[in-house]
């Protein structure tokens, strides 16, 4: 083979690989850049696991909504803002009032020189293996960007506060109904990209990357039991809610989510559209922890807009997500914890 021919083939192969990577990144409207591995196929909606519907207490949506109202009253809640400190205190106070031991992991990123804080609490089960229910608590920074259109007052009612509100509202429900597996509630900081456009390679997902790194270190020293699965909640309160089939997520967990939506009669709000979205589940997936992201991003008109306010949210939407999560948990436990006995 002549050198020129060999070089042409190599360049052609590199071009094809680069083109595939660029195509993958272009598929992702929320997260442009960073993660490059390919999304999976959509779930098979005809493959429904028969699940027993678990209904959340009828006031869970309203309780969560009250938390959202409190959190948004603090204003922007990214690091350095007064609202950031108030929100962390509110999360910790609410969990401690339930008798839970709360851990606040605070650190300063060496490169960004920004301080972040994750908050977590474990609801003990009969076994130490954990299922993590998580959200992010930070809001997008909408000040100091070069484009004036990206600078505005932003309270992140749905994108940030809704997940926090739901986890806080679910905490007493989970405490009252202990499981075989332990359930850990985790509130990640630094999910939002510091660049306006998504950049999870370097400038986003600070809290989840930190959490997974610390978990991996604790596993090596025997200081923690294994995390067997993650259910992530992101933007779960919009009035016209639609949880997309997020195709980076573990397919078996997406099938459980769809089956739970069918069991609870909420399927019209789930998986009508499918699209990948980088989020706080990515660091978990990268180390082999099965994860699913319940996210209302595709077609969401209020995402990172001044209109992401409590006026465009509904307690009923949060309530139906609570039903689905509680219906999912027994099957997640069955497949990812009990099956390993």
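-> sequence recovered:
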């Amino acid at each position: 083979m002549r050198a020129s021919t060999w070089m042409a083939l190599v360049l052609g192969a590199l071009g094809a690989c680069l083109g595939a990577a660029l195509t993958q990144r272009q598929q992702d409207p929320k997260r442009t850049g960073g993660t490059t591995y390919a999304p999976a196929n959509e779930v098979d909606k005809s493959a429904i696991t028969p699940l027993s519907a678990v209904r959340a207490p009828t006031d869970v949506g309203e309780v969560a909504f009250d938390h959202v109202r409190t959190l948004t009253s603090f204003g922007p809640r990214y690091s350095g803002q007064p609202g950031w400190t108030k929100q962390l205190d509110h999360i910790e106070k609410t969990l401690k009032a339930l008798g839970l031991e709360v851990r606040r992991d605070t650190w300063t990123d060496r490169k960004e020189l920004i301080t972040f804080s994750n908050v977590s609490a474990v609801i003990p089960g009969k076994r130490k293996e954990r299922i993590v229910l998580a959200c992010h608590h930070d809001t997008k920074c909408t000040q100091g960007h070069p484009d004036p259109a990206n600078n505005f007052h932003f309270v992140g009612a749905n994108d940030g506060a809704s997940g926090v509100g739901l986890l806080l509202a679910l905490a007493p429900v989970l405490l009252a109904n202990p499981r075989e597996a332990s359930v850990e509630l985790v509130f990640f900081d630094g999910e939002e990209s510091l660049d306006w456009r998504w950049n999870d390679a370097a400038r986003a997902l600070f809290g989840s990357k930190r959490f997974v790194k610390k978990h991996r270190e604790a596993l090596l020293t025997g200081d923690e039991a294994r995390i067997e699965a993650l259910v992530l909640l992101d933007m779960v309160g919009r009035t016209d809610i639609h949880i997309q089939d997020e195709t980076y997520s573990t397919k078996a967990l997406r099938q459980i989510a769809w089956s739970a939506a069918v069991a609870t009669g909420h399927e019209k709000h789930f998986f009508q559209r499918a699209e990948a979205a980088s989020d706080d589940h990515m660091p978990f997936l990268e180390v082999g922890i099965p994860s699913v992201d319940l996210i209302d991003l595709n077609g969401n008109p209020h995402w990172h807009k001044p209109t992401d306010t409590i006026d465009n949210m509904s307690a009923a939407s949060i309530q139906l997500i609570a039903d689905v999560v509680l219906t999912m948990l027994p099957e997640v436990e069955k497949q990812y914890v009990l099956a390993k006995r």
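Helices lie at 3-26, 60-73, 82-97, 157-176, 206-221, 251-264, 282-286, 315-336.
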